[in-house]
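Notes on consecutive records. When two proteins share a document, each keeps its own sequence and its own token line. Never mix them. Below: protein one.
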Amino acid sequence: MLCDSCESTRFPYITAQCPVLTDQQKSKPCEPASNVQRSHIMETRTADTSRSLPVVSSSSTAKDIAKVKRVICNELLAYICFYRDNSNATALRRVVISCFSAEDVSEAKKLMMQEFESIADARPFFTKRHNSTSRSACEAEIDDIISLFDAVDTQQQTLDKYLFVASDFNQLPKFGPEELNVSAVVDRQVRMEQIIQNISASMDELTVGGSGRQGDAALSQQCTQQAVNDIQRQLDGFNSAMNQRLDHLSAICCQLAETTRAGNTSSPSRLQHRVDAKDRSKNIIVFGVAEDRSAVVWRQTVDAALRHVTGSDIDVVDMYRIGRFVDSKVRPIVVTLRSAWDRRIILSNCRKLKDFEGRVFIVPDEEPDVRRQKVFDRIKKRAEREGKLVVVANGVLSVDGVNVYSLKDGRIA
């Protein structure tokens, strides 16, 4: 136990919170110690604000630690926070997918959402992800976590107040994302060969310089030759291992290329159908926007409706009206978005349009056959509900003896 003087010197912030002791309670003074190295200590708060924990750091990191207001313990977030500025996003995503489970990724995203829910730029990435044909939900959530870090980093000094740490080092990958790069491995091999050559040249110079002393020179030359031989054996083993890895990688690449080529040529009819079909995966159709001679006016109305639905600006590639202009009708508008994820967000929040001015509603852009079948079924059910006589023949719907809709041509005037 330290004396009161040592306690007040080493831990001033604790002594200031303690009550004053009487003379009987005070301990005896300690003998003076020399060369006492003091670490930089700062006080941080845990989730329980009623107690505090001292954080000990070296003098080189004390300035950065002093800015921290909150410590988050999560291995996945600590790994991404450290390597996101030291590697490309593709390599980082590949390492996280292979080393962490889907539950770890989901838990890390929920923790990020809880910590940064007040930042407006981070809210678009709070969407719950599901598996799709292009990527899994785990990959989408990893992209959201990286994007959340980028969004929070744009805020002034917001990310500097957080310290991401790991408690279980067994869960962390034992390598960085860039260490899987074949080019980096080859570059290290070239540098190693250059170092070996420099060492060999230096050894030759030492051997030549000490030739005056025959006994010592022979012994030195023998030791040098043995060292060079050992290094050469190690280098040969390294080269053999690298060549095997490169050959294995080349075989995998050739196999993937053949698989892709076989998939593209196996069904030419399906490939031709995909080429001929129009990509509607990023399109939506907006109804109810009033006609105007100036395209700027109704374009602004569409942008306002999308902003009302999502709560933020949506990147729109193009928008145009379909059909001929008629004074008594309002033509629908086809909107092409930048990504299919924006389309999903908009369609899942269309219910918010009931609070938007005017009768504006949004539906997905579908194939004409699918769209006509839905209209066909809707007209048929409404007529049957009203007790009218409904007859369907050769794809033509008749109500009370009048042809009203056709699956081939649409509405019949």
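Protein two starts on the next line and is unrelated to protein one.
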Amino acid sequence: MKKLMIILVLIILAVVALIYVQQPQQTQREVKQQQAEKREEVEQIQPRPTTFVQIYYLDDQGQLIPLKRTVPQLQSTAEQVKNALEELTKAPVEKNISSAIPEGTKVLNVEVKDNIAYTDFNQELEKMGGSARVQAALDQIIYTATGIEGVDKVRLLVEGKAIDSFTGEGIMVDQPLGRKE
């Protein structure tokens, strides 16, 4: 009977010891999770650094006009160009200001090499007609991208492929294009 009592006490002690040993690990996990949640809360509360870029839209006479937009301040030139072009694809909110960029146009990727921004858009970019509108859209892209320091020219890509002729209007874009100054 004494042996049974000793075995029972040892089993109880072993169970208590196991619970005690596992308790700190669960608490550590909970602490790590709480710390991660607090970091996320702090990141949401603290404003991210922003900067201004010039996005080129069209005035009521169809002339390019730069408007300032706030975008996240990023490290690489390619990220800056991509943010600026993504802002360009949004419809302007100002009166008497428009854009020739077709609705639904998305910036897929931007790479900058040797001061040339290789700008990759979805196929919506080419869904427009009229040589004046096509030229205006092209100018909007070129002027917006070359407004970023470190970019002198732009090479258009659609769905990852370099294009030689922009839309059905036959505007040649077979090489990097810069501003008409």
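For the record: Residues 100 and 136 are 6 Å apart (CA to CA).
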